[in-house]
Amino acid sequence: EVDTDALFRSLTSIALKNETVEAETISMTSRLRISMTYLSFFLYLFFGTLYYMYDPGNELDGMLAFYEAITTGFSVGLSPKDPDYVPDPWFSSIYILFGSSLIAVLLTKLGQKIEDSAAMNLYQSLKRRETYEKLMDKDNPLMSRCAAFLKFNAAYLIVILVWILFLAFIVAWSMLAVTDYNESTPWDFAHAQYFAVSLSSSAGSFSLPPNAPQYAYGLAALSMMLGVPLMAMGI
Prior knowledge:
By secondary structure, the protein is an all-alpha fold. It is built from eight helices and no strands. Helix 2 runs parallel beside helix 8. It is flat, with a radius of gyration of 25 Å. The N and C termini lie far apart (64 Å). The model has no long low-confidence stretch (mean pLDDT 80).
């Protein structure tokens, strides 16, 4: 006589093991793709910086070359320190096109990671949503509803908070490092926040003045590299 219960348990165990192996394989493949995307991104910036450093007859200092690689590659379009500097048009066009594709992939991967941290499997997600709706009932105390909102949306709110803090960082260093065009007074808050928003949004509508110290261009490059993706995810 066949023990149907034992057979069912055996088949269920095999199915669960196969699902686990499949999930682990998908997870490993996903991590490998993300790692390759990050590696491609840093190699992209590295070779772009090298090109702008050693472009024959158009060489830039290392920090300014990094700034040019970022402002061109991220399509921000901030002005160079030297108003007469014109980067190689053919290389820069290809660099922008390749960078746009790479940055789009990178932002998609980062967005997926945030969504994954905020979501679970279908059953858990539905249960979580049901719990959230109960906690947000209008009859519950306001503080309980606020706590539920913060907990349920924590992954997204953290990104927005980091973006706001990073904008504050850009405003702070630009007010400390940059003076106006006549070199008499530091940038005020209005100009610094305009620069921060312009830089992070890829608008490129307000650049550092040519008299800004060279390290300010290095900070601007770093701020673009981190600020552009943060703003894209935070808004």
